[in-house]
Known about the structure:
about 35% helix; GMP Synthetase, Chain A, domain 3
Amino acid sequence: MFIQTLPLSDENQMQFLPGRQVMPEGSIAFSNAEEGKSQSPLAGRLFDIPGVEAVELREDSLTITKLSADEKGPMWIQLKPMVLAAIMDHYMTGMPVLNGPVQNEEDANYSEGELKIVNSVRELVEERIQPQLQEDGGDLVFKSYDPGSGMIVLEMDSTGLSTPAFGTQIKIENTIKHFIPEVSRVKFDRMVMESEAVEGDRPGLRTPEAEAIRILLETRINPAIAAHGGYINLIDIREDTAFVEMAGGCQGCGMADATLKQGVEVEIKKSVPSISQVLDVTDHAGGTNPYYVGY
């Protein structure tokens, strides 16, 4: 499970984004530990951490307020690992975020018939599509439905997928349209966040350069090589070097080096000028500074 973090302007606050739905809609804030524990199992776990003063739950994020230094509160370097562990523990239990039903204000904008479609999409996404996507390292949540055009919007995290994101999106759209004929189109919004992995952290993947390369791979490069059954993943960025993995039909292909040097590297360097070289980590001996040293 990947959890994203975002420092806020108030140095005693930090936002945590678990990459999945926290609240169906709206937000709720707890500044009292007893109130939080009585209303939310997740907030209860967080208030059990010494130094947590307040918890705010939103649709896809949590904001934690800690005791200040003047109040002898902990530093984030001490508190953050405990918050990450508490969030992970909560989602592993399968317990609800809140005790009792949550009022979804957006549902009031739909008619009874439209709400049936929305609920059908939510059920299909949460019970069938999302679990499979999470097993493959991604995530997906329902965002909105436009009754006039028949379009639904889903928010998708594709950074950890083992297959090309665009191919996965086509499968998801076909599945939804098959089971819910009222849906005519599916639009995918990206979960664009500053990433922080709980384990196996690679700081280079949390940079603007990494995000630009991911978008380039998903929108231009992978669709172009899909006809050969191949796809390319960004593995890491270190200084001016991007490390990529050529998988699927590209792995072991005699033209892989030409594809990388004459196509992929040129496009990446053009889109991200700070990158001076691109190394293929599927060839562990390639380059003068292979990413996987010792292989």
